[in-house]
Amino acid sequence: MTKRMNLLVIVLDALRDDSADAILETSGRRLKAESCIASAPWTLPSCTSLMTGTDAVQHRHFWHDHTLSASGLVRALPSEFRKIAFVNNTVLNPTCQLNDGFDQWKYFAPHAEPFERAAKLIRRAGRRRPLFLLLHSNIPHDYYDPEASAYYDEAFPDAPGEAFMLGDRVIRWTGTTPEERSAVARTYKASAMKAVSCAREVLDLAQARDDFISVVVSDHGEGLDYDNGRIHHGGRLHDDLLRVPLYLDVPSTIPERQFDDLAGALTSGPVALTDVLPTLFALAGVGSVPAVNGRPIDSSMSERVIVSEERRYLYLNDRFRLNIQGRNRWMSPQEREQNKRLQGQLASPPLLRSYRSGTAKLIVTCLHLRAPESRHEVFEWGQRLLGRPMLAFGGDRLFAFELYDLVSDPAERNNLLATDGTGMEALLAAGRALSTTLPVSGAPDAAEVDIVTVLDDVEHVAVH
To answer: What is the pLDDT of residue 1?
Structure first.
């Protein structure tokens, strides 16, 4: 291409893959990934992976006071690009360090503002100075706040006023009835529909110009399964949080062969959130992208192990979410005290990691305890973990393992290690196949070795 394409990235925060309505698909040149996997289950680390192309297991950016060593990929764009971001989540204020390389990075609290600002820029964009625009919306994320009531009435005009606002109960859904929980799910759906509708309007503007390469994606999903303890986000690595929608819209000037390669690659297997910017840059002919974990989505892609990670939160089976080094927002005084007590039992933040390739997915939780001699304390932690994990501990660490077949069990209800009498053998086989590594100690920056070496030195406890 002789002229630079404009680039648009729309991030709909906390939009589940099953909530991305087909309204985003058109008869034009808009493509959908069959499966896109986020690098982390909440906004800061996942958006860091999106903007740097680096897996969370490497950047470890789970706190604002952590110095981000991975560089933002927008810095690799040629200087003639205008690089602008409009964001809608307070986590993404400039202290998040993701504004590296941007000419403007602005936070707006009102939901409508980022879309309105983006529409103006898209209408005015010129080819002499192409545009890279990041538009982030918190509409799906904020389904528990009062603004969602209007989205509910818009989505369900026959049942106005029936939205249910979780408010500060969003972490645990405390005291909700079955009827209220059903209303929560509908309120989330309404918020998702509003976000998708707003994104479609902006996409249609970009598509009409026929000089934008555009992406709609989410940073993570949302948990709506109260009965199984899978609510809200962060603190676990199941697919309702990690599997996210990904749509690409390309102009008619993209060569047909390149378009066909992209379409085939998007449906041939899972892609990673870290692939988004490398793919955009490759389509736009930007050749100076540094080597990162992400890769351009094209026909040359081969099967790989996709790794996701969490280090700040940990959900327990009573829907309590442990928060490490946080402000403990939305916690009651009793929950804050419990959070302090449980955090005091850990020598370092919990480590949650998932490995997936093909149909197999292995989730590992590692807890580095201050008192390794206390077997009762170790087992009590294991009893409170989600997923009926297989437990093993060695020294000062407790390991918990979940193994799923994503074809026969896409909802991840059946931990194969809990039902198979040969759990340790199945775990070792999966660990080898998925190139699984684990830390050799509980220290935050501990070196890692393959799972077989670690499990040689642990004691198998039980499946609860």
So the answer is: 41
